[in-house]
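hiii, so i know i said id send this last week but things got crazy w the move. better late than never?? heres the sequnce for the chain we talked about at the cafe, plus the structure i predicted for it. fair warning i was half asleep when i ran it
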Amino acid sequence: MNVDEDFAEFVSARWASLYRLAYLLAASHSGAEDLLQTTLEKAYVNWGRISRMEYAEAYVRRMLANGLVSSRRRAWVGEQPYEHLPESAENSVELPVVDRSLLWPLVCALPARQRAVIVLRYYEDLSEAQIAEVLGCAPGTVKSQSSAAIAALRRALAAVATGEAVGEP
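okay and structure toks below
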């Protein structure tokens, strides 16, 4: 099998899971498509080396996370318009715990590295050591970024709850 066929097979077998991670990291469909496209371009160029690795998919996932973080360093993106309004969870059993349409925009508002840590920990269910490996940083950095992100989410949820208590939308 040549490199092109091998890469095409890899992408077709893992595209759905890679796109899901890209969407969670980028927080929008268009951002996920751009992030995944850029990452797959870089992976294709280096596929001869990557395909020989024991965990090629893990390496590409790391490329996705690093791609998001490094793209945020280049320029401030500003507001991100959404293609569709978030789903309503009015009759959900999850509503008493946390309304995801409330929490997800708050996660999306986190800085890129903090959002990557939260997504990898709570959406992808990776351990701190695995996240540190994916992001190429120390486990202590993962812990501090996670702590800062959770503190920011708590402050944002408290602000929303305070606004609701006084009747603000």
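btw The chain has eight helices and no strands. thought thatd interest u
miss u guys!!
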